[in-house]
Structures are given as structure tokens and as C-alpha cells.
Amino acid sequence: MNIETERVLSRVQKPARYTGGEYNEIVKDKSSVDVRVAFCFPDTYEIGMSNLGLQILYGAMNAQSWIWCERCFAPWGDMEEELRRASIPLYALESGDSIGEFDAVAFSLGYEMAYTSVLNMLDLGGIPVRSADRPSLTPLVFAGGTSCINPEPMADFVDLFVLGEGEELDIEVLALLRRAKREGWDKRRFLQAAAGIPGVYVPSLYEPVYNADGTLKEVITAPGAPERVKKRIIEDLDTAFYPTRAIVPSTEIVHDRVVLEVMRGCVRGCRFCQAGFAYRPVRRHSTEFLLDTARAALENSGYEEITLSSLSTSDFKGLPELADGLLSWCEPRKISLSLPSLRADNFSMSLMERVQKVRKSGLTFAPEAGSQRLRDVINKNVTEEDLLRSCRVAFEGGWNSLKLYFMLGLPTETDEDVTAIARLAGKVLDTWRQYAANKSRGIRITVSTSMFVPKPHTPFQWEAQVGIEEYLRRVKLLKAGITSKSITYNWHEPHVSFVEAALSRGDRRMGAVIEQVWRSGGRLDSWSEYFDFHRWMEAFRVCGLDPEFYVSRVRGEGELFPWDVVDLGVTKSYLARERRAAYQGAVTPDCRVKCMGCGANCLLERRACDE
Amino acid sequence: MNRLLFEKVGRAKFISHLDLMRTMQRIFIRAGVEIRHTEGFNPHPYMNFALPLPVGTESVCELMDFDLTGQEPLPGIPERLNAVSPQGIRVLDCYEASRKFKEIKWLDISAVMFYDKEIPGADQVQALITGPELIMEKRTKRSSAVVDVRPLIHSAAVLPTEGGLALRARLAAGEQSLTPAQLISAIAGNAPAFAPDHVSFRREALYDSDHVLFR
Ligand code: SF4
């Protein structure tokens, strides 16, 4: 570390986030590798290092002897200021070299509110933010991650998108880059060739044409580029790279523990859930793989906690065996096991009791909607009985803190549905009164609501968001319905959700808004310290775009969407069918009960989903 | 009681004390070296550090007490821990502790004082801190007092170095102490022109009241 950087670090908060040098960090000799990648996470170190995808891809890329992948995170405001003042470019943690010197700069885009940080990080690295202003082959700026399922808002800034799971795809792209470097290709030639790799979307090869009313008319595709880009998946998870030597941060991060991914995808079909459709079809790790991996990851990290991760862990077929196997290894070593995203409907009493022996933390359930009617609309197949039964088990087991998550503004929601949330929370409280093992410590029930954001590639992609005013009215209504002191109501600010709604279903013109927000000081927009609603509204105005067009407009069923270029396997006609089912309040069984033909099976070589 | 002598240098100097405890705990677990946990409602590994090190200060003389639960031979411990440590943390020795931390009375520090503009004369700075008295305002949370900290400086030497001045000093440690940062602010308070723009500190060695190396 040079003295300039050291000086800067001696003046900022939490400097350990900017030093690198953690245990299991990978350092290579830069002269002996062919491609250097700066893997950038457009949020803080603490958030980024908690991201399993980052740890997986870091390991997968570095498993190739010819790639050296390093990490870079968004600096907090104080660090950014110091870097700019000292003219130190944003650097990768391992080598301390400026990200502008790398062959490739890869961004992980998990959520829309990180977009402005992408621009800020590029700029801090001395890299022009617009793809068109970067004529040379390197640094190649590419991006992947959940929010890339609508790549259009970031299309002006990113040279290419990798759609779907990156373990193999990223390396294919980098192999092509290695060849391009060796053979002296220019950027154009490289991007043309890259478009031929399945899963790669090169936005500069697609030109959107708009109707007079602002909707998309057509997309002109350059010769050689696929009409639609199909996302990549790993068919057999056990054979793909999985990190058992993950980096162990020397400073506390959000998820300071071993994260064990048990499966990808979700068999449920909650209609509001983007991840549920984006990660189809379900693929599982074998129990043997998971037990071996967990042991190795725990031994190599020194962590004292392991958590099972997936969209719906209680749907993992071998969960009892897995939990037994893990617990019998963990208990004598005083390692605790946590099981987030358990569903209220098949909550296993014995499992909970075993987990509780090691550590008892707060419980969280997400019924999402208060009434059965609305839960049927969103296909959240949890009944009130299920929920109350699970609560009873929890209270009998001594739990005395419970969080309940809901969304307000779901399609078809009425005031009756809103007040049903308060009634449901009241019933949970009654359940505690009736069954609590020990009432002396009291009970804390927290009800949280957020404003529903309609997301691309879901059955609600045609829907309007309810709007800030209306959300706040419903918040008030709900608040009035909650009378007990044991129930706390937290409602999330709707302004971020409004901007998120605009970005998530934005088209390519949104790039100008993102750039304008960034130029007027926007970054780290998922942090309330930095998010400024007026800055966003002002940017829309300056760019001549109406945010309501993206947020509050019900789309016609035949409308061409900016994200239709991305093929996730699940067909648009299936989503439309699901939307109609939602309006009829008709539930769709999960994939284990019956395959409803969503189309995701086509991503599998064997063309058939499990079960 | 077992004691570790370790260094915390380079990038690791930015690890805070709280994070260091967590990091140490994980190093022991990774190395498979079991240590005693405290009893009680929330058991945690027993680790006692001699003098908490400020963030940003390097040290080659950190001491930490713990108890092995097993019968491992102590000389093998450093190698096992070092194999699983992050960059910059290196155990130099592991031995049976015989003396108490409260016997630590003096601390050798080295510092490089960087100046962006004019570098003051090394002799003048040395003369200031080794003069008959060094008056400074010492602030605590509740009060502030003007004191002579000269008795808390056993010896000090200042030499020119690239970009600034190299300072080496033996300062009082323990209850009545003068921290390196306080020494710098005493210098700046008495002679604003000597105030450095940046200082990097390093702890070099610990001593008892007789100036015998403490270990
Ligand atoms: S193809 Fe059928 S089983 Fe597979 S994810 Fe779609 S609905 Fe589920």
C-alpha cells in the first residue's frame, strides 16, 4: 500500500473495508495472467462481501490460471471525497491497482438502486461512463445479476451483459477477450463475436424504435446478433464451482457466516416475485455435496454460524436429513445453524426445536398479503391456519419476537385487504396469549409493509404501481387498525419504491436519467443517507421523460417490452395466463404438484424439470 | 496462562480492535487450536490484549493472553496460526505468561511525520520534545488540564527521512501514559510549524518500570 492511499485511509471511517488482505483473498502475479478482471460491486464492502454470487464468481474466475479476478466495492462518501481530493483512482483491493488498468470491469447488478453507483465507480476509476466513449477493447465493461433481466436502463453504459448464471458464461466471455487481446481485435469485432456466445447481450447491436406514444415499436437487431438472448443456467449444480475457501473479511459484514446455497430457483410461483421466475427451473445440490461443502467451508473460514440459502429453503427435498447432518456436526463445535426463508406452511416443529438448541433468533414470516383473497391473487399459497399453526409452535417453543412482512399496493388490493393485515397480526397476538410458554417476557410482533413494485418477467409486469399518495393512505388505514402495544408497525418509505419501479421497467432512454442523477450527485441510492427523490424527479424533467409512464401505466397485453429481448425460458404467454389467473383469484399449484408449462424446462438439456 | 506475541502491520493495521478479536478467534478455529471460553450466559473465547492498539497504528509487539484447552506444545502454535492468518497478522512467539500486563510501563514507538510543504529541522523538533518541559492540554471526556508531559517521555530521537522526519521515542504506557498521537499534538501545540500533515505510527517494544523488555 502506498503512502497516499495510507494517508487517505487514516482519515476515513471503517478503513478496513478498503484494504484487502483478508484471509483467503487470491493474489496472483499480474505478469503471469492473461486477463485481469476487476469484479465491482456497486454497494459497500459490507453488503458486497455478504453476496454469495460474488464469492462464487470470484472463486470460479480465479480457478482459471490465466485470470486474476480482484474485488472492488463502492466507497462510502467520505472515502470518495478523499480519493477525489488526493487524485487516487478507485482501486481493486488485492493489488491496489486502478480499475481503469484492468482488461475487464465486471459489475454485479442485483438491484436497480445501485445503478448510479456503477457510473460513479467507473468515473472514480477514470473510465468514461458511456460505452460509446470507450473506443478501445479494454477495459471491457460487462455486467450480470438479477436486475440485468431488464438490461435496457444500463445499456448505454455497459458493453455487454451476461444473462443468467455466470460460472461458465463469464469465463467464456473472458476467454474470447483473451483471444481478442492476443490477436489485436478492436472492440467492435470483439463485441460482434461475443454476441455469438449464448447468454451474451450486446446492447450496441440492438436499436430500439419507439411509437409516438412512447411505447416500444420494434428493436432492430444487427446481423449476427440473436433476436432474443436466452439466459444461461448451470444444469448440474454439484459439478459447478462452489467456494469452500471463501474470503473471510477482517471486519464485520452483513452476513458474517458461511452461506450454503442448497438450491437455485423456486417451485412456488408467487406472482409478484421476480426471483421466482428469473431463476427457474429449480435445481438442487445433493445432500452429500452440501454436507461436504459445509464442513469444508466452516473449517476453512473459522465461522461459527452457517445459514442455508435459497429462495425457499423449506421446499428443499432433503431438508430434514441435511439439517440433521449439519446439526450433528455443528452442535459439538458450537456452530449455529440458521434457516432463513422458511415458509409458514410447512414449518417443521422438530426442526425448529433442534435449531433453537444452538441459538434462538427472531422469526420472520412473509405472508405478503393480509387476506386469503389477495394471497390467492398473488399465489402466495399460505393460509391463515398455516401461519397461526407455525406461530403456535414458535410461541410454545419460547420464541417471543416475530416479524411479519407485507406488501401494500398489490394488484386488486382493497381497503378490506389492507385492514386484514391488522386483523391477522391481532390473531397472531391472540395465539401468543393462548400458547406462549412463558408470557412474562412479553411479545414483540413487528408488521412491516413496503410498496409493491411490479417487476419485469413476472405476471404483474403489465401492472401499474399504486402511487405514493395511495400507498400512504393505505399505510394510514392500516396504522389505524393496529391498536395493541405489542404490535409495532414499520412502513417503508414509498419514494425509493417509486424510483425502483421506474428503473426496473425502464427502456433505454432511462440511461439519460441515470446519468443525470449521477451527474447531479447521486450514488449509493439504496441508502437513505444518499437517496434524494427530488434529484430523481428533476432528472426525469431534464431528460424530458415522464416517470409515471413507466410506473403508473397499465400496459396493453400486446405491448412489446424493452426486456422482451431477454429470454428467461418462462414465456410471455405463460406470464399473461398467470396474470389472468390472478384476476380470477385462481391459484396455480407449485411445480412439484403439477407442471404448468411455464417454458423454463427448455433451458435444461434433458428438457424436463425435477419431479 | 498462555501468551502470544504477534505483529499487526501493513494492511492489517486498519483492522479495529473489535474486529481483531473476531479475527483472532477465527484464526484459532481455522488452526484447530482450541481455547478456553468464558463461562456464563453468553460464552465467548477468553482473549485478553495487553494494550488495545489504535486503528491505523502498526505494531510488532502485541501481546494477547489466552488459555489452551488441550496439551499442545506451545512452540508449534505460531506456525499453525500463521498458516491461517490474514495478511499482516503474524504470530512471532507463544509462551507461558509469567508477568502481568500491568507491569508494562514504557512503550517504544517509531513514527514517520510527513510534511507536504516545508520539513522542519530534525534537531529543532528533537529539542522541543526533549527540552526541560513539554506543556500540553490533555483532554478527557469531562475535563481538560494543562500538564507537563515531559516526564512521560523517557527518550526521543528525531532524524530526517524521505518526505519528513523519523521519530523514535520511549513513552509512558499503562495508567499514566502519553500516546504517540498525544505526543504529536503536543508538538503541534507548541510549534504549529512542526505539525505534520500525516503521521504513521508503529509500536516497537514494551518495557517494565526498569526498562527491561516486557514479554
Ligand atoms: S416447466 Fe413446469 S415444472 Fe418446470 S419450472 Fe416451469 S412450471 Fe415448473
Overview of this structure, please?
The complex is a heterodimer of chains A (611) and B (215). Chain A is of the alpha/beta class. Chain A has a domain at 3-230: Rossmann fold, CATH 3.40.50.280. Chain A contains 20 helices and 19 strands. Chain A has helices at 3-9, 45-48, 52-62, 77-85, 115-124, 166-183, 187-194, 274-278, 287-301, 319-330, 349-358, 372-377, 384-396, 415-435, 468-481, 494-504, 510-519, 533-543, 547-551, 572-583; strands spanning 35-41, 67-73, 104-108, 140-144, 160-162, 200-201, 206-210, 216-221, 229-230, 258-261, 263-264, 283-284, 305-309, 336-338, 363-368, 401-408, 444-451, 487-491, 566-567. In chain A, strands 2-1-3-4-5-6 form a 6-stranded mixed β-sheet, covered by helices on one side. A 4-stranded parallel β-sheet of chain A has the order 15-16-17-18. In chain A, α9 runs parallel beside α10 (319-330), α13 (384-396) packs parallel to α14 (415-435) and α17 (510-519) packs across α18 (533-543). Chain A is globular. The mean pLDDT of chain A is 94. With 215 residues, chain B is an alpha+beta fold. Chain B has 2 domains: 2-98, 2-Layer Sandwich (Alpha-Beta Plaits); 103-207, Alpha-Beta Plaits (2-Layer Sandwich). In chain B, 19% of the residues lie in helices and 34% in strands. Chain B is built from 4 helices and 10 strands; from the N terminus they run βαββαββαββββαβ. Chain B has helices at residues 17-31, 77-82, 122-129, 180-190, and strands at residues 2-8, 48-49, 58-66, 89-96, 106-114, 135-139, 144-148, 153-161, 164-172, 198-207. In chain B, the strands form 2 sheets. In chain B, strands 1, 2, 3, 4, 5, 8, 9 and 10 form an 8-stranded mixed β-sheet that branches. Chain B has a two-stranded antiparallel ribbon with strand order 6-7. In chain B, β2 (48-49) and β3 (58-66) form a beta hairpin. The longest helix of chain B has 15 residues, at 17-31. Chain B is elongated and about 55 Å long. Chain B starts with a strand and ends in an 8-residue tail after the last strand. Chains A and B meet through α1 and α9 of A and α1 of B. Iron/sulfur cluster binds at residues 280-281, 591, 595-598, 600-601, 609 of chain A.
